Amino acid sequence: MIWLGIGLCIIGLALLIISVVAIKPLKRLSDVLGSLKQTTDELPKTVNEITSQTTAAMETGVDVLHDVKGKLNDLQPVFHIVGKFGRTANSLTQKAGSITKTPFFQNAVKNTKGLLGIVAVLLLLFNNKKCK
């Protein structure tokens, strides 16, 4: 029985030493858990705030996109006019290119080079006389 009493005293003394040694880390753990509790208490408020700001930003983005879409719809006739003008100009340049490549046009240009030079000199002389 004495040995049992001595064993229980040693076990009690060991548990007392362990609890004294563990007081400081347990105090730190308590502080960390308290700080974690404060952080987690503020978390729902912060999430709600971020969510509301995100929602407002998305609504603003949607409004801007609707505005841009409306303005592009207003400009759509202008784009159609520019497209038609481009197609017409392309058609005219193709026709003019095909006309200038014909042998009749080439001969007409060769035959009128001298005549065009004379007209240009006469225009220069006529303009010089008006300037004086």
Secondary structure layout plus pairing:
Blueprint: H1 2-100, H2 103-131
Beta-strand segment tally: 0
Q: Point out poorly predicted stretches.
A: none
What would you call the shape?
Answer: rod-shaped
Order of helices and strands: HH
Q: Given the helix and strand composition, which structural class is it?
A: mainly alpha
- Helix count, per DSSP? 2
Largest sheet: none
**Rg value:** 48 Å
Distance between the termini: 145 Å
How would you describe this structure to a colleague?
With about 130 residues, the chain is mostly helical. The longest helix is centred in the middle third of the chain and has 99 residues, at about 1-100. The relative contact order is 0.03. Helices cover about 95% and strands about 0% of the residues. It holds the Pfam family DUF948. This is DUF948 domain-containing protein. InterPro entries: UPF0478.
Structural key phrases:
about 130 residues; mainly alpha; 2 helices
Structure summary:
The protein is mainly alpha-helical. Helices cover 97% and strands 0% of the residues.
